[in-house]
Queue: 3 jobs
Job 1
Amino acid sequence: MSFKKTLFSCFSGIFTQAITNNLAPLLFVVFRDNYGLSFEMIGRLILINFATQLIADCIIIKIADRIGIKKLLIISQILSASGLCLLGAVPLIFADPYIWLCATVIIYALGGGIIEVLVSPVVNDLPVKNKQSAMSLLHSFYCWGQVLVVLGTTFTLVFIGQKLWFFIPFAWAIVPAITAIFMINMPMPDLSTKAERISPKQLFRTKTFIILLILMLTAGSAELAMSQWSSIFAEKGLGISKVSGDIYGPCLFAALMGLGRLGYSIFGKKTDIRRYLIFCAFLCVTCYLCAALVPVPIIALGGCALCGFSISMMWPGILTIAAQRFPGGGTALFGGCALAGDIGCSIGPWLTGIVAQISENSQKMQDLGSAIGLNPEQTGLRTGLFSAAIFPLVFLILLFTIKKISPYGDKT
């Protein structure tokens, strides 16, 4: 039996998640200018998105085996398409659309949460020769989705203008709609021959799995701290224009992250994934320090972009190690990892922002920044990125511990 349609559907599914996660932030300026949304209201939309995905992660861990993975994947695409269509329609229907915007975010975030938990175990269960290559290729499609969403949405807005922005969500909704149709007829791998399943209770009590969850948390934090802050850092911290900041910030970051995952899927078949992750983590720390400390803008921006490559295999790499250590982990394993990763995606950018705000308001930091030619805003942004280097550093340190613990927590 050929599983090409299944693999393609999973790739398209994670592409959909990239759309739902990255489209609304590109429209925040439109929402603020056209509907009077405050920064706090905009920030609340981001919080609602990640909080809903966290809730979806928890629910799917418990119900996936009862309802069926295939049915849930189809539902995820329907929810994503519906949410995107409502995102475009709601402001046209309601004069004060904020509460309805919150509702649309919840709808497509539920779809994104389901996708995140389920596509990885499906690909892991497919009869492919090299699972870690397949996993890295799968997650590269999120990066390509992010690149296309940033470029497509940014240039479409320039072309059609802000007043016609609502056409954009309808256009992107075509992707999950078509994916749902493909998923209806996709074959699913036979799980009956898999290793004996480990109960979620047993899984969450093992030391190795707890360490892997912390690794996922720090991976998510390291990825989103740079991804979310690179655009404003490029514009405000380095003096680059808004369009250039988006392209050379989150877009180039995502492109290099995608290239890193694609490259590993092709050339990394015989590579020890743990050793490669050690290299990635070390490079990631270096990139954060380069962006935060180097006074030359082009080099600092290069650190932001190269950070995307260094982070590329952290998330799929830990999923690969988890699947190797716990072959019977099933949905609980991937759902737990997704949950930890989403927590990191939430707290990483948030903590970076807190440090940046404290530094910007600190007289001592202002004096220090002024001595090297930085204004308070630039000082705050650089300090925030400097503090975020703790995430890949913790990731690096923890990688040296997982080899010393067996799957069930006994020292080897």
Job 2
Amino acid sequence: MKFGETTGSIFGRNPRQGIGLRKTAEKDPRQELLMKGPKVVAIGGGTGLSTMLRGLKAFTSNITAVVTVADDGGGSGVLRQELGMLPPGDIRNCILALADTEPLMEQLLQYRFKEGNLKGQSFGNLFLAAMDGISSSFVEAVRRMSDVLAVTGRVLPVTLENVTLCAELEDGTIVCGESRIGQHRQFNKCRIKRVYLDPAEVAPLDDVIEAIDQADVIVLGPGSLYTSILPNLLVRGICTAIKNSGALKIYVCNVMTQPSETEGYTVSDHIKALVDHSCEGIIDLCVVNNSFIPDDIREKYRNDGADQVVIDRGALESAGVKIIEGDYASLKNNLVRHDPHKLAEAVIKAALEDIALKRR
């Protein structure tokens, strides 16, 4: 299969075209089918999580996105500091990924101001900030914004507490702040030894634990390993809930390594970091991309300190890790990304097979 080629679907592509408001028309057989889809809990943050959510909503409406709140950079960081609210950026992206909106509405919510004091700020962030101002809680604000945009499933912050993500590098240097960790290569080229939250004891949102308990499949990633996925697992009780859940646990490994976080990492290196920061039994299956990346694209990534993640099958087999390989990547604006539909189809297929096996 050629790089970026689109496969067919076990259900077909999502044909919905909405205006951002829920419809009251007659029952749609497709909607009834989506309501019977597997219960998916997707955990992460950044662009990786929102990319997968765009694909998942074509297969099931039973989606819960659990999003990190450690972001302290860009417009989210400004609103977090000035308004004392949780960072809205990752949550905004997940809401839009699951929304049933016209392209113009999404374009509006993703618009960034180009001048003045609001330069660089996203209108969607301001929308959520305003909703937070008229709501009794941040969770209610997210729910209300989701209702306005006709979101499939729900989006939840992993915790409502104000947290700072910190990293200890291999030379003992401590770097605090999600944005600084993601750029630490600029001033310290040491690898990350571990990440942790300050404060360390952070309570999870009750709805998150409940969703994990009821899930058919729990998906970690794709996304930045240390700054998008692991911050969720560091919240008290999350790892235990995932381990004790009867759901299939899937880790979606990134297609490319990431400067300042995973330079030179293989698939097994990613999984080791996950287990070291959480516990054994948190991953049943790993989804990995094996498509061919054109040499000119790889060279551009190498110039930035990144490359395609190597699938070290021997190490994975020795560690007892099951993998699903496939062409799950696509090329957009000369950037290698997961294809939303192909990735979601792989996740849903694995989930349905697991559900069928458990019912025998």
Job 3
Amino acid sequence: MLDSLSDVKKDLKKKMKKKSSCHPPSLSENDKKCIELIREQTRQLNQNNVTRTQAYLQFYLQYPEVHWALLGHMISRNVGWNMTDLKGDLLTKLLSERDQQAFFSFLERGSWLIFQDVYPQFSVYDLSVRGSKEMFHLLPFFNTSTFMETIWRYFWRSGDSYTLAIALVINEQSYLENNLIQNNHFKKTVTGSVSFKMYDFLRMNNILFPYYAGEKIEKTSLVGATARHFTSLHERILFGKNLYSILFQREEILAGVLKWAHKCPHTGSRKDYCPDLFNDVNESLPRSLYKRRIKNCLIKEGANRLYSPSLKYAWPKTPHEETKSGDWFEDWHVLDYIHEEANFNGEILNNYCKTLETIEFAVMAKEALLLREVE
């Protein structure tokens, strides 16, 4: 019986010893049908960033006890904005087309990987609730980690939403580490590139949670945090915990984020949260030199808004190769992350505004340099 975290620890230790000799359980005909159905549903919903993002929200609305679904929805929105930034006003002037494609492939692959790992887990939970009987014996057939198998069984008995959410943060980041961050192709084309270092230097790794403060649904407020050291698994897990804290430890933020998410369907354009600053129609003249447009997150008088296209116009759907099966879980000490403190200040606006202005200066500096070379 998994009634406490100490029971979870014992179960994980036991699984580590038996890991090499573990065999998936035998399946009934009904189990086999359920597996095929979940695989097909996951494939249908995993077409692009917009379909994934919507699927996370729909699941959260059905099962609000699964906190990660809302966290995943909001982070997935940010991934979509990062994707379309690559075709927007600023980054097209800083990055070559080759770099734009490489960065998109990296973001898209990560987004696809997480969804194809986590959504079957959600679907098995849905099956369990509908049938009033836990069905977690199906998880190995989706290559779910033994770590999450134990955690879902614990959650089924305890209803401990916090532990499930942080465990999913640990799981998804560990899964990404094995299948994306340590991938030789992406090490060469993205994380080891000069352009990726520029991302860090320009502080472009802001995760934003738009929300409506109070009763008014007029102006969007922002909370969030800035990621550092993206290639560090440890830092990504702590960052995920911080984002969870921002979203779930203050009721007014959670309520405001949900109001905003309901009212503003995800398109991938940053116009979704700030139509005064961004537009999904390009208002700029082609090939014109860039002039400063932003001050304190406001567009200067007479200046055009920044172009931020919808995802469907920025990038085509991308086919993906299936991942090799393999369980990342090797050390029960990852449970320690569940107890570590998280910093949940949430102040992001000032940093975000400075980031936009810094990128503008970088664009103008690059254009001035190119002009000098031509002369």
